[in-house]
Design a protein that fits this description.
With about 110 residues, this protein is mainly α. About 80% of the residues lie in helices and about 0% in strands. It has helices spanning about 5-10, 25-50, 55-80, 90-110.
Length: about 110
């Protein structure tokens, strides 16, 4: 396929709504998608680290990870409670979880 054909396909492709979300619903969806991408990266980092550990340390990491997920979810539910029932609440919770997940990925990669 030539360059012109690729450019045409790119031009005809619908724009990614997450480049410039216009509504609260789009912002919420985009924040959820970003969280899913970061959760996938977290799972990769966690799995790679697990494979490197002896059984004793592996069990300790598994326990720590379960506790960390519970903490992340509880902390972000708390942070999102300020807008409880509002249309922005899903965005706030997803953004919080994404931020904490990125930090956890960095920890696991160290």
């Amino acid at each position: 396929m030539g360059t012109a054909a690729l450019l045409l396909l790119f031009a005809l492709a619908p724009p990614d709504r997450c480049d410039s979300p216009q509504t609260q619903a789009e912002m919420n969806r985009c924040a959820g998608e970003e969280l899913r991408r970061n959760d996938a990266q977290l799972n990769v980092a966690y799995s790679r680290l697990l494979k490197k550990l002896d059984p004793n340390r592996r069990a300790k990491l598994q326990k720590a990870e379960r506790a960390w997920v519970a903490f992340r979810d509880a902390q972000c539910d708390y942070e999102g409670s300020e807008s409880e029932g509002g249309s922005i609440q899903p965005l706030e919770i997803a953004a919080c979880k994404t931020e904490l997940t990125k930090a956890r990925i960095a920890q696991l990669r160290e």
